[in-house]
């Protein structure tokens, strides 16, 4: 498990140098419109979705280690080429290639995490999420200073991180024996399917994850431009993500301890997250100065801490053994779809209405889909989160 966590830390640190600047880089450095930037983010997410599905299929059917190494190698090669070719449209193409590899590798790694039998799945995913956000803190703290040296340095450091991760994968990431046994049994035609009631709840949860990321993607795209229009500098925008990571790093261990002491129900954490996301998104209507954005980010981050590591654990608890990879792939794909649709949809709403209309829509969307999930849980699961007979 410690190599899994170290890999998550390294990947997150490298990625956090790049993704907060993607929209700004295309808009301010490459002089592309917000529509073009949103379209690139859309195709980024689509390739991530395809990669996630493929990663899940690979995990359920074999040759896991070979394709994991190949996908990480693809990511490392993409970022290496960005060092030399980061003009338009090479930047967009290589970014999309990187995301395709990321979809495969992140799904396989998440699926491997479900195979750790020594720890409760919620603890495993909480710790992975914790380490990812330690990386977010480190990466977003560095990005404002690294970019002042040169934009090229962002790509160099990112490549170095991927190279280290590739070495860790090569040396330490192996498929558990019980998963290899599953592949052998599947070749003989032996397989178990996820019950229909469980699948209904899973897809309702994934729909909520999608709705949340439609709103959350605004922070990573359109909000950077909105804050710039209000006279807030890029360094302050980047600092918001540092604040986001710090809150997660401080709060996540407390939630882990609370979970261990009181065995918190996964559904209750998701329900509270719905309230926090709805409130956080709607609070942006009144954000006109930097402290208001900090407050909104803090509220949204609390919702993130409760729900983002809970979704994969919740889905894992309901999915059958032979379909772990499939559903972990969907856990990666659905929020990616939200990040694909979000920037484009946000741009359309802003262009035709206003930023306030965008924030109202994202809040209402989360409330509606969250209500559907609650209904599905009540109909199909009992008080212990087990499938009703």
UniProtKB/TrEMBL annotation:
Major facilitator superfamily (MFS) profile domain mapped to chain residues: 199-389
This protein's record includes keyword Transport: yes
An example Gene Ontology molecular-function term: transmembrane transporter activity
Transmembrane segments: 34-59, 66-85, 128-147, 153-176, 197-219, 239-258, 270-287, 293-315, 356-381
Locations listed in the record: Cell membrane
Pfam families the UniProt entry points to: MFS_1 (PF07690)
PROSITE patterns from the UniProt entry: MFS
Origin superkingdom: Bacteria
Family matches, as InterPro entries: MFS, MFS_dom, MFS_trans_sf, MFS_Transporters
Principal subcellular localization: membrane
Keywords, sorted A to Z: Cell membrane, Membrane, Transmembrane, Transmembrane helix, Transport
An annotated GO cellular component: plasma membrane
Membrane-topology descriptor: Multi-pass membrane protein
UniProt xrefs under PANTHER family: MAJOR FACILITATOR SUPERFAMILY (MFS) PROFILE DOMAIN-CONTAINING PROTEIN (PTHR23517:SF10), RESISTANCE PROTEIN MDTM, PUTATIVE-RELATED-RELATED (PTHR23517)
Protein's recorded name: MFS transporter
Species for this entry: Ligilactobacillus ruminis (strain ATCC 27782 / RF3) (Lactobacillus ruminis)
